[in-house]
Here is the input.
Amino acid sequence: MRIALAATCIADTLFPAAPQAVVRLLERLGHEVVFPSGQACCGQMHVNTGYFAEAVPVIRNHVQTFAPVADGEWDAVVMPSGSCTGSVRHQQAMVARRAGLDELATTAEAVAARTYELSELLVDVLGVTDVGAWFPHRVTYHPTCHSLRMLHVGDRPVRLLRAVEDLELVELPEAESCCGFGGTFALKNADVSAAMLADKTAAVRSTAADVVTAGDMSCLMHIGGGLSRQRSGVHALHLAEILASTREDPTPMPRTTFSEVTVS
Here is the structure.
């Protein structure tokens, strides 16, 4: 397959190892990955904060950049983010229609129909759960809110993790509880966000995991920041980084101090 990568703005800016891992993984599985140079933000932050009019040019750029998938030039678009995929699927066409831009909305719907979160692409489109990964660490998985409640990815990420050689997967207590990030929520409601984060980091630490993983770098930034400030020794890695790891090309543990970039 020919797959276009939408890296997401937070990963491209702060955590490029995650989209790079998507490329490593998909190319290892025999697929061609293209990176459209015009991509930027999907507009989720603007829409979630109520700035619909300001979101329109951002959405237009995303739709125009990835429109070739609707014409068959690419087979799919992959986004290593449940929240950004959710925005593409459930917000972009809605915002365009509210602005009276029906043509843009129609194209947005066509792009959305071929846009997948990483675990969806692997399991539902490519039909694989064992991607040939090797990651000899104790790992716990946090299902992010948008992937869980908006995309309904279910156990797809867990099935992928269970197939990784030498990975010990441990269940996260209260896994479906929000980590407290929520984009601008963490800025506008910092005290509440910090309290939710404290619960999440306590749950992560109770598993004695070496690594906490998820499908969204935004949530991992938040959780990883809390764990870093606590000097817990627990690393935060995107699901793609684990699935891209092999004996021949292992993913190293991160050196990033998340407390330097966390927002709460």
About this structure: Residues 42 and 62 are 6 Å apart (CA to CA). The two ends are 40 Å apart (CA to CA). The first strand starts at residue 2 and ends at 5.
